[in-house]
Amino acid sequence: MSAATAQKAPPRGISAEGLRKSYGDKRVLDGIDLHVQAGTIFALLGPNGAGKTTTVQILSTLVSADGGEATVEGHSLRRGADAIRARIGVTGQFAAVDGLLTAEENMLLMADLHHLDRAEGRRRTADLLRQFELTEVAGTMASTFSGGMGRKLDLAMTLVGNPSLIFLDEPTTGLDPRSRRTMWHLIQQLTAQGVTIFLTTQYLEEADRLADRIAVLDQGRIVAEGTADELKRRIPGGHIRLRFSDVPGLDAAARRLGLGPGARDEERLTLQIPSDGGIPALRSVLDLLESAGVEADALTVHTPDLDDVFLALTGDGSRHQASTVPGPADTAQEARR
Question: Phi-psi bin for 271: left (phi > 0), alpha (psi -120 to 50), beta?
């Protein structure tokens, strides 16, 4: 390939513009644009039925779009589907593992499907079983595996063909927290090796933890895109909450901070102050309390998280069906004095 040809070749990763898809009268994708840089983790969030799986199916050549253009790993969806399939892997929320075969047999079957010769297939299988810590159960029937082990085997099978881009469609759905974190570690290892990851998930903490960039899909349209921090900054609601031991302290603090009735909760003896939660804002509040001779029993800082982003961007809570992993909703610090 000449230098001029190489310069004109589309870049690796994913570039999609105006993708549309309908099933009958239902428009599932309504002209979405996506750009995923090679070697990064891109997360697509959205409520159930938003079009996440359809997006994966189109970009992985499983179904055709009704309109729009896209390139995947430098090849056009319309003209280079075979070349795309040779470079990608797809893992869904339900493991594509044959329970009647052992872990090793499942891997060797994938090697045959990728037309690897026998020696290369066995070498690749052994390497991946070792990488995924499945060597000890290589001869065990897959039907006996736990959900986490089955999902690890499924991902290992996806890697037999040495893909440069992997679509992970809700890969940790139904896994316990320990198995989910194991999958996160494996995904991060793949990216460190230069693999591009396109992730759809209903677990907001998962996207926050893993993704370099996040897009929010709602009713077939991309309603926001950016890093996790960029998305969080778009949502108002950050605040400092102060708790006091008695009403006089609450009143004195409210006067000094210039807060109206809407900021106070007399039953809980708390004040809520709009804030970005930064150190300058905290210092300013504490200085004002000190100048008024008032001490707070506790101080809590809340900044918007991806739950807040999701709810704000995808409509009211009645349509919010995304799951969240148990964890702290607030970034909280107790400053007891």
Answer: beta
